[in-house]
Design brief:
The chain has five helices and no strands. Helix 1 runs parallel beside helix 4.
Length: 141
């Protein structure tokens, strides 16, 4: 597989993270400017933002949890030349689940739906790690 094919899912997930960071900052600045939030009420990290802004911030923060294991796996698979078509397809499935999770997080935030999106991504990532580990430990192609 080409570097572009292997890394495009990573770039896409990084773009989601940057978009959520931008949206978080934009929303927070707007909230302070509109007077919805007082700086003294959030200066020490207190969770006194409006609900919508908390949802966006939580979604941003979640991009530094499960996706970290994805980034590590992609780097290892790329460097060790273990990324094939199946790996790239599973990478895209994982990225789609993360977009779904983020969308649910910042909109309805229905916990059941959000959990399902998270669980689907988790399952895909576990399968990816198992396949990768087997290819390394058993020397499968």
């Amino acid at each position: 597989m080409s570097a572009q094919a292997i890394l495009l899912p990573v770039f896409t997930l990084v773009a989601l993270t940057f978009a959520l960071l931008f949206l978080t900052g934009y929303s927070r600045v707007g909230s302070v400017r509109r007077g919805e939030t007082k700086v003294r009420d959030i200066a020490l990290g207190q969770p006194n933002w409006p609900e919508r802004i908390i949802k966006i911030g939580n979604s941003y923060n979640s991009q530094f949890q499960l996706p970290i294991l994805f980034y590590v796996l992609v780097i290892l698979a790329y460097v060790l030349r273990k990324a094939d078509l199946l790996f790239v397809i599973l990478s895209w499935v994982f990225v789609v689940t993360r977009f779904g999770h983020a969308y649910i997080h910042v909109t309805s935030n229905q916990v059941g739906r959000r959990f399902n999106a998270f669980a689907a991504g988790f399952a895909v990532l576990v399968v990816m790690w198992i396949i990768f580990a087997m290819r390394i430990l058993i020397a499968l192609p």
